[in-house]
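notes to self, project folder thing:

trying the whole complex as one job this time. last attempt i did each chain seperately and stitching them together was a nightmare. two parts in total, labels are on each line so i dont mix them up again. if this works i'll redo the older ones the same way
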Amino acid sequence: MDTKGLHYIVEASGCDPKVLEDIDKIKEILINAARAGKMDIRSIHLYRFTPRGVSGFLIVTSSHISIHTWPENGYAAIDVYICGEEGDPEKAVQHILKEIKASYAHVTEVERGVKDEEGIYTHVIVSWDEVFKPQ
Amino acid sequence: MDTKGLHYIVEASGCDPKVLEDIDKIKEILINAARAGKMDIRSIHLYRFTPRGVSGFLIVTSSHISIHTWPENGYAAIDVYICGEEGDPEKAVQHILKEIKASYAHVTEVERGVKDEEGIYTHVIVSWDEVFKPQ
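result (full assembly):
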């Protein structure tokens, strides 16, 4: 299997606290994000933590999605990492941002498993910001 | 809970293929990495994929470790993300790199959940390379 993968690292601000603390909704969002990203689902794991917040993981062969939420801050930390060329991680990210009603996102795209001229694996980083209109 | 977290994104080269394809060894490495990083363990999930390679996840409340391995390339993609100030993610990373016998690592440290002056969450990135002596 190709070592190359795309990993999106996202800080989402201004999200809906009700969505961020709803464990069933987070599960649904992860499943639909995987579908949007053309990822097969191997397993899903969700944890509620005190006082508020959810950690969610969706695992795929050599790929994964994770989300950690802080409802009290309207903040979520999202990772979408897809290996190979068949998936569409950016669509998975956009689905999550829309569903948690983010108003702002700081996104870093990391191209992983890139072989340099000396045969050493490295990664390539690009960052940007996104502002969303109120839904 | 504090939104701040440290996320290490690591491409490891020149690793021992025997370790990278040994699912029991990868499980043991993840458990001991969590201990080294002072992380409590909520759950561990391991997958073997064809033709070779392992995906491993160790989940902690609002933190996680993941590894995807390509034994045929001596390559592993590692993530260690720890929220709060009690854990020591760098020790977890160093434990994994030592145990998979990496000869080279490209590391990016992402400081996540950092609030800027406008109240928006962002992240701060620092990258470096590490070369290890043969063990």
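what i see at first glance: Chain B touches chain A through 45 residues (CB under 8 Å).
need to look closer tmrw
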